[in-house]
Amino acid sequence: MTARLDIRAPFRALDRRPRVYFYTTSDEKFLQARYVFTRSGLPLKHFRSKTDPYSENEGEGTERLLRAAIQEIKKSIGESSFFFVEDTSVVIDALSLEGDDFPGLRVKQWFAETSFAELDAVLRKRDCGRAAQIRSDIALHVPQLERPIRFTGEVQGAIATDPPDFPPDPQHPWLGPHTFSAWFVPDGATRTLGAMAVEESLQFDFRARALAALVDRLEEYSAALNLPSSGYQRHPKDVASGHPELFTDDRTGFLVIGPTCAGKTTFAERATRHDLVHIEASSVVRSLGGPKPGESAAEFAKRLLDEMGADVVARRALEWFEEIRQDQGFVISGFRTIEELLAIKEVKQNARVVLVEASPRIRLERYLERLRDGKPITLTGLAKIDAEQAEFGLLAVASQLPDVRIRNEETLEQYHEVVDALVDGVPTRRLRGVSSGPARADLTERGQLERCAHILVEAGRPLSTDEIEERSVATGSRIRHNNANKVLKRYPALIERLEGGAGRLRYQARPAATAYLRYLSEFAMDRQANSQ
């Protein structure tokens, strides 16, 4: 079973949605839960407690433990919020006795005191197989409902035969070599759960299954919260006021763009630690349909834009995510068209476009690391991916449009520090590897492309480079026909190259060129030495 992690329409299209809190002292668990919630289009809040918000007594069993935890939390913070708790349990068949699962709910303490070598030695000695199960149990408190609602995700598998030998995943710390998942190979998998990339892990992850079931129920509650007045009647008595808002945010939004594996998603996921809402463009795309048989993801995206408009992803995000229209912080990652930037900036003019860059070689290393032992590609393959993405328009001119430009080639920790500083409003001039606005060379290129594109858009028909040169005199300095040719042929996503008979070469503006000119006119900033 694969966890359903797509955007749910009731969370985005309806006015009211649940405000949900996860009570846990484990940052790793919270980050995983927030990942699942964000993919589904629902924010998740973290109860930040220095100590456990409830007392764990594993001897009572899962159901009693979770029920007692809910009651204890209700005593300390009240009953008027949606909140949930989670517990993980493990059963290793060879070490369990009838009626006594081992290590069961004691897995956290047992794992901290046990090495893989010790477990492997015991299993080999007993020679009773290596079968194991790992399970997540969630209890959700629903305001006005006395009993908690329970959700379970369980995966069968076996203890690995070799110790973990792969690097940590700092971006998704619930995976990696330092959790029990690194010792556990799910049925149907060829490697341990901890060694998987996050996308692959979703079909095998026990906690993701429980969280997905929780989101399914919250989707139903969201629909109920939005019933019309004819769908309910009021009871004639006072109703307790709701739980107060714990977090407020009046910061700007960030539109994070850049090539594959530059660090867009890493930026966005780090920004969510500052209570910014993350909107992933690819998740919105998936909500709009899927590829036809034999159609690649890129071909599907192009068809989608052709049929529904180049700004459809941004328009759908505006419909679903009320945070964009309110004074709450948000970060959108993965836009591919200029029209998408325009759609958001029309509503939130102070949203900052952040371009994240890195050298092809560094991005290739990250790409291969993301795949772990999946199918590798070469620098040539990465260049092909870049070219496919540039065909949508935005990445072809990305270096000419940003408000903030980040060179992400240092360590992950240093990159996180940069993201934290930007979200907190630290001026870019104080940050290493960060600049404000386009570089000087990009401004020069932008000026040449802008003039040529303007001439073509004004003409409304294909022009030869000689005609462009002739018309350029009326708008300023002369653009030599050979210079016009050099510039225009570098931007096929904006300018169509037409080759006629007798070697006659002409150029024609595409719709993306019009969007490009409009963006420069209304929103583009120049490079300023003392800018933020």
Compose a concise summary of this entry:
It is built from 19 helices and 16 strands.
Give an overview in words.
This protein is an alpha/beta fold and 532 residues long. It has three domains: 9-87 and 136-225, Maf protein; 253-437, Rossmann fold (3-Layer(aba) Sandwich); 442-522, Winged helix-like DNA-binding domain superfamily/Winged helix DNA-binding domain (Arc Repressor Mutant, subunit A), CATH 1.10.10.10. Helices cover 39% and strands 16% of the residues. It contains 19 helices and 16 strands. The chain has helices at residues 9-13, 27-40, 62-77, 107-113, 116-126, 198-201, 206-225, 264-271, 281-287, 297-308, 312-320, 338-347, 360-371, 379-390, 412-423, 440-459, 465-472, 481-488, 511-522; strands at 20-23, 45-47, 82-92, 103-104, 131-141, 149-159, 184-186, 253-257, 277-280, 330-333, 352-357, 404-407, 434-436, 463-464, 495-499, 505-509. Strands 1, 2, 3, 4, 5, 6 and 7 form a seven-stranded mixed beta sheet that branches. Helix 2 (27-40) links the parallel strand 1 and strand 2. Helix 17 (465-472) packs across helix 18.
